[in-house]
């Protein structure tokens, strides 16, 4: 659902896909090839939210802020399932792990990786290429070239997804039996651990 609020109507590039079960409200600008999953809420009621090209905000994420704040999720930022971005700015090609919480005025540096279930407190400044875990968040090392290549490949899958959703996603009645020729999807991406197994 797309909602105007106090005269602000979301601006969404036609190449992006917003699931019908997501809610986009007010002063929100979504660039090219972005994916917004079902259950996501992006509320630009109290400030402006910009998603630059290639950003994905996955299922059940929340993006919001305190009144008068505006935030940017820079190009290719990747926000995992269930994460909360509250008044924080995300750097280019960063990864926010599932169920993480990024608080007000935090700055996530370009190509940083925030681990799943991490809590980044208000005003924390994460330098570029940082690997961050824990509650509260702690920088444990620098992101390697191999890790950022793995992250970038995963984000590219999400950047293809809007077109695939526009082309093939449709509401249907379920089948009542499994088709005899049903195949499993191809293995196109491995976990980080699988990727670097010796």
TrEMBL record:
One annotated GO molecular function: transferase activity
One Pfam family this sequence matches: Hexapep
Organism: Paucihalobacter ruber
Domain of life: Bacteria
PANTHER family: DYNACTIN SUBUNIT P25, GAMMA CARBONIC ANHYDRASE-LIKE 1, MITOCHONDRIAL-RELATED
Name the record gives this protein: Transferase hexapeptide repeat family protein
Presence of the UniProt keyword Mitochondrion in the record: no
Keyword set, alphabetical order: Transferase
